[in-house]
Design goal:
The chain is mainly alpha-helical. The protein contains three helices and two strands, in the order βααβα. A two-stranded parallel sheet has the order 1-2. α2 crosses α3. The longest helix has 13 residues.
């Protein structure tokens, strides 16, 4: 559920390195449904970021300590996840 509770926040920290739940991944695999840890992670990150002031077109400061998540964000910015 989307929320506007953080729409005025200009400093955000995303401290997770996100992976899919292995049980859900296995169920999808057993049903021949393709999943991707990278797509799941970047989706979670972008949803988090867009709950901040960036939703109003305002600049934010993002602290993203995970190298993997920073690389995924960069790949997303380059359009790699467009489908």
């Amino acid at each position: 559920k989307a929320t506007n509770d953080f729409i005025d926040v200009h400093h955000v920290a995303f401290l997770l390195d996100v992976y899919q739940n292995p049980v859900i991944q296995q169920v999808c695999h057993n049903r021949e449904v393709e999943t991707s840890n990278d797509h799941h992670a970047v989706s979670t990150l972008i949803q988090f970021v867009f709950r901040s002031a960036v939703r109003n077109g305002e600049p934010i400061k993002l602290y993203l300590p995970s190298l993997r998540m920073r690389e995924l964000l960069e790949r997303w910015k380059q359009g790699e996840f467009d489908e």
